[in-house]
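Risk register update: the risk of archive-format incompatibility is retired. Evidence:
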Amino acid sequence: MSGPNQHKIFDMINLMPRVTRSAKGLTCPTEFATSVAGRRATNAKKYLKFLSIVTCQLSLIVLLSGCQAIGFSNPAALQVTAKPEASVFLDGKHIGKTPFFSDQLKEGEYTLKVTVSETSYVDKITLSEGTLTVVNRELASNYLAQSGENLSLVSGKDGLFIISLPSEADVTIDGSYSGKTPILTKDIEMGDHKIQLVKEGYVEREFAVKTSSKYQVLADVTLASQIAKGIGINSKEPPKLETERVLVLNTPQGFLKVRKDPSLSSEEIGRVTSGNEYKILQETKEWFQISFEGPSSPASQRGERAGEAGQSGWISAAYAQKVE
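Archived output:
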């Protein structure tokens, strides 16, 4: 398949080139064989003893490096694409520009930020050892006009699990209607599949996945609002786009800290009062990005600007809830 919105998540053996690497000074079998051929005088007993100590483990899916010393964990892989080209950050550290790929990352949970100019996408992602996580994003200054999908492999489960924002999107797999999101399809054949999500008022999204018997493919899909993208608007005065709002719940302090990025370690840039509602600009599983003006943070007491009108920042979802 081809097209700007069509991407695949591959098993590692299909994705990664067959290269040899050294791990902690140990050479891979191909390198060692070359060395032996060039040194015919090498004692065979020493060679066998060496092999009894060192084990190079080759795996079809879970091994990203060609050689591994026993006791060392496998790295994780991340691929990020974006339109337009954007910078990629993990936990605030700049790691490159799109299209980005690395197969030498540590497993764990990260805050991913894809940004260009004043436009950005922020989300929590989990990188697992030996597997590839794919993030595809079409950026826009209005978050509701953004679209994309996050594709990952979940160990210990099988099938294809699709969730979406907004939910209740119609899902078609290989041309056959499957149901509405969220949807788990377990009786799916192993191999390549074309996925399409459609919902009234939103731009349809199409992409491809490759399922495996060893993992569950998780597809987290974001659909772009047609109104936010200016699609299908003929009148001189387009209808106003309904925006979601969030209510700040009661806290012992009577306020909630607003942070620059969705992380408890991020800088505090303001405070919002419990019981007030705020416009949602973006959301992740644990954070809301809001537009606010409210009680200033301690920074204002030092003469710094904080909590000013029209500012945006992140609040914890643990102390806030969407307003229906």
